[in-house]
Each structure stands twice: as structure tokens, then as C-alpha cells.
Amino acid sequence: MKYGLVALDIDGTLLDSNGELSARVRRTIKAVIDRGVMVTLATGRRISSTLPWAKALGIEIPLVVHNGAVIVCPKTEKIQLQKGIPVTIAQQIHTDLLKRKVPHLVYKGEDHGDTGYLPTEFNSRSRALFLEYIDDHIQNVEQVYFSEPVIKISALGETKQIMAYLEQWQADYGQDTSLTIYNSVDYSGVDFIPPTCSKATGIKHVAEQLGLSIEQVVAIGDQANDLEMIKAAGLGIAMYNAPQEVKEVAKYVTSSNDQDGVAQALEDIFL
Questions:
Q1: 215-to-5, 52, 135, 211 alpha-carbon distances in Å
Q2: Residue 106: which residues within 8 A CB-CB, separation 6 or more?
Q3: Dist. CA 78–CA 69, nearest whole Å
Q4: Of 25, 82, 140, 142, which has the fewest CB atoms closer than 10 Å, so is most exposed?
Q5: Looking at residue 135, what is its pLDDT?
Q6: Whole-number Å distance between alpha carbons of 108 and 103
Q7: Is the pTM here over 0.70, yes or no?
Q8: For residue 182, what are the β-bridge partners?
């Protein structure tokens, strides 16, 4: 199989644990692009925190952001696709999270999900956690108003708290949204995104635009939100630092993000 597109997750995959891009990874991606293979990014990040990495790597084809809810052209910054959670469902989720006192950010459709709105009833500690684990573009608001479909709602709390509610959330909202879970040692997060959205659907859309099939895609990632993309791709690769559930669906496990795992995989396949 001749692979024509590489889809890379950013955090924990492209970047090391300090959030930096190594010289080897940068050099290898450039060499792959120079050989005529297209490269894109597929991330849970918003547009403005993804574009700088695309530009640093010379990526010019569409990017998959917000876990597949938005696809954007890095050259023109034009939105090519945007999906949203219906207003009534988004309001229900927001009310549920407020009732359970679960801190959360609402990413609204009006700005393509580029600002996370945090209800003011959550204290500065909650804001600090979001800044550390999820996003750095947060606006505190006394009340979240819903006028257009919502790109994403990101909940974050202590793992025990999040896991206690997860089954109920899946039962209540699993038909109307896709739920993605993130885990760390002490804290866990849940992203509610539009139904049928995932990095896999986003990458399939980009591949088709380029005249490629999903079987011609190499996908590399490290977290639960990469799982569907890794399963769907012709060659799905997990980072060594990925949890076991992600490694189990991958065809190949590369080195960790602190050992230039992306470079190692791409060198083995293309160079």
C-alpha cells in the first residue's frame, strides 16, 4: 500500500512532554512532505492553538480540530466544515454539569469554538486546571447563552467525580453527542462533541478531498480521542506513551513522544 497522507495528533504525539517540537521530528516531517506525502494535524485543540504548529511545519492542507467537529484550511483560515451540538442538547448538558458542580468550558459555534466559556461560579482553581490540562483561551461568564449549535463542551474534574457520572452521561447524551474521555493520574475530562464526529471522520473527509482513501492514511496518536482514527487508518500507529487500549488497536507502536516517536515511525515508513 502506498500511503499518501499522514495525520498527526499534537499533544503527547507531535510534541514532547514539555510541549516542544524536537528538531528531529520537524526535520523528518519536512523530508516526508518533500517526498510528496501530505501531512496534516488531527487534534482536540481549537483553531488558533493549532495553526502555529501547522505553519511551523509547512502544512498547507486542511486541519482537523476540535476532534473532527471543525476542518479548517491553514493557508486561508477558511472553515471547510463545521458541525455542532443542537442548542437544546447543549443546554441540557450545560444544566446537568452545573447541577452536578462539574467545571466545564462551552465552545460556541459563533467563533468556531475558539473561546472556552467558563461559568463564573467555578472558582479560580477550576480555571487553573483548565489552563493546565485543556486550554489557555478562557473567558469567564456569569451565564452562557446558546444561540447557535455548540462545537464542544469540555468537562474536567477529579477522576473519581467524572467516572461516577460517565455512565449516566453516556446513557443520557450518547445518542445526540459523541463522548471522548481523557485520563490523567488525578483528573479526567470528557468532551461532548457533535454526533458522528471524531478524528476518524475528519481525516476521512480530508483524505477524500485529496483524492485518497482512508486506507492510504497513516495516523499517529496517543490518547482515547485518537483511537477511532488509529483504527480507521490504513496504518494506525500508537505512541509508546499511549494507554494500552490505544496500543491494542494500533498496527504498530512507535517510541514515546519524548523519544521522537513520530520521527522514528515516519523514517521507518517513508525514508
A1: 10, 28, 32, 12
A2: 90, 94, 116, 117, 144, 150, 153
A3: 14
A4: 142
A5: 62
A6: 16
A7: yes
A8: 189
Tens of pLDDT, residue by residue over 219-266, are 999 998 999 999 999 999 999 999 999 999 999 999 999 999 999 999
Q: Are strands 104-108 and 116-119 parallel, antiparallel or unpaired?
A: antiparallel
Q: Mean pLDDT across the stretch 122-136?
A: 70
Q: How confident is the model at residue 111 (pLDDT cuts 50, 70, 90)?
A: confident
- Domains, the chain, in order of start with CATH, read 5-82+197-270 (3.40.50.1000), 87-193 (3.30.1240.10)
Cell of 73: 484550511
